[in-house]
Amino acid sequence: MKLRTIDDFFNLAGGTIYLAAFLGLHQTTVITWAKSGIPTKYWNRLMEEYKVTAEQLFHISEAARENRN
Predict the structure, then answer these.
(1) What is the pLDDT of residues 32-63, one digit of tens each?
(2) Per-residue pLDDT for 2 more than 90?
(3) Does an H or E element contain 22, and which?
(4) What is the C-alpha separation between 21 and 60, in angstroms, rounded?
């Protein structure tokens, strides 16, 4: 799967509720990533669990920050 947006990653992870539970976070926190990008402190766990690369996480996070309204 090609990840172009944070929403693509949310879909890969099974949704924001599942992703939040996996990381021990509140769903609202995960939802904010759609505008702020995924914090780097979670990247290692996400790369291991979802088989994505740091480059992919970087690009979708940058895209999220550029598209803030």
Answers:
(1) 999 999 999 999 999 999 999 999 999 999 99
(2) no
(3) helix 16-23
(4) 21
Taking the CA atoms of 13, 66, 59 and 3 in sequence, report the sign of the dihedral they define: positive
* No. of helices (H) and no. of strands (E), the chain: 5, 0
Q: Helices 27-36 and 16-23 meet at what angle, rounded to 10?
A: 110
- Element holding 10 (H helix, E strand): helix 6-13
CA distance 36 to 6: 10
Instruction: Tell me the whole-structure pTM to 2 decimals.
Output: 0.91
**What sign has the CA pseudo-torsion 50, 38, 53, 56?**
positive
Alpha helices in the chain (DSSP H): 6-13, 16-23, 27-36, 43-50, 54-66
